[in-house]
């Protein structure tokens, strides 16, 4: 397969860099089970990449929960506070980010999480997240008017690099179907590292699919290769 050479990289966070998706499942299930409803992968796949309030409202609608999005958020917030500080990096993350930084490849974070939520999740990993030139927090950034699958967050992330690169020169790393669609809509190539449990029919049109970031070969996209 042949890919376009790129100059800049943009990374999602949850489920790609940080192993938080299982924690989200636990948190959301804790809420839905109070109302006798099961939060399944069918539901999860639809909201991955959504901003918080959009995710809460979508779950409420799908499961017909007798609560508001604000009530869902108020219930789940203390669960986040307990679970998220414990999250770990996923395989290959530190090696890849350190490699790109070493070779002066501009990198940015584009997460649907709010800045507050991100700071809770990254407490143990500040040295890793400081590698990014900038971070776009879709859940709290007023400039991100529409969340994934809309392209806003990736276009904004690109625009905030000092040289404002053409989207065609940006490579996105994602784990969710909504994130992949957002990158495609932004006219960017996208490497997808899906959760093994994600239904295969939801993996549509990424540039490349990998089992892990450990499998990524930078030279495939014109970036400096790892040195053995």
TrEMBL record:
Recorded catalytic activity of this chain's protein: psi-UMP + H2O = pseudouridine + phosphate
Keyword Magnesium: yes
Any one Gene Ontology molecular-function term assigned to this protein's record: metal ion binding
Cofactor(s) needed: Mg(2+)
Cited InterPro entries: HAD-like_sf, HAD-SF_hydro_IA, HAD_2, HAD_sf, PGP-like_dom2
Matches recorded under SUPFAM superfamilies: HAD-like
Domain of life assignment: Eukaryota
EC number(s) on file: 3.1.3.96
Enzyme class, broadest EC rank: hydrolase
Membrane-crossing segments per the record: none
UniProt keyword list: Hydrolase, Magnesium, Metal-binding
Any one Pfam family match given in the protein's UniProt record, by short name: HAD_2
Gene3D superfamilies in the record: HAD superfamily/HAD-like, Putative phosphatase, domain 2
UniProt similarity note: Belongs to the HAD-like hydrolase superfamily. CbbY/CbbZ/Gph/YieH family.
Full protein name: pseudouridine 5'-phosphatase
Organism: Cardiocondyla obscurior
């Amino acid at each position: 397969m042949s890919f376009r050479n790129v100059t800049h990289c943009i990374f999602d966070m949850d489920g790609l860099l940080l192993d938080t998706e299982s924690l989200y499942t636990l948190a959301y299930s804790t809420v839905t089970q109070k109302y006798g409803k099961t939060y399944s992968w069918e539901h999860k796949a639809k909201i991955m990449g959504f901003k918080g309030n959009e995710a809460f409202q979508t779950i409420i609608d799908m499961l017909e929960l007798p609560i508001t999005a604000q009530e869902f958020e108020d219930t789940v917030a203390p669960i986040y506070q307990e679970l998220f500080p414990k999250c770990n990096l996923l395989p290959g993350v530190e090696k890849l980010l350190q490699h790109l930084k070493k070779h002066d490849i501009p990198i940015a974070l584009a997460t649907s999480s709010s800045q507050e939520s991100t700071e809770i999740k990254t407490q143990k990993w500040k040295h890793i997240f400081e590698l990014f030139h900038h971070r776009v927090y879709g859940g709290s950034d007023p400039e991100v008017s529409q969340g994934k699958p809309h392209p806003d967050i990736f276009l904004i992330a690109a625009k905030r690099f000092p040289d404002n690169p053409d989207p065609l020169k940006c490579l996105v790393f994602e784990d969710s179907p909504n994130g992949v669609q957002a990158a495609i809509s932004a006219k960017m190539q996208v490497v997808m590292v899906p959760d093994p449990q994600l239904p295969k029919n939801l993996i549509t049109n990424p540039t490349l699919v990998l089992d892990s970031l450990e499998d990524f070969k930078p030279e495939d996209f014109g970036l400096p290769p790892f040195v053995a």
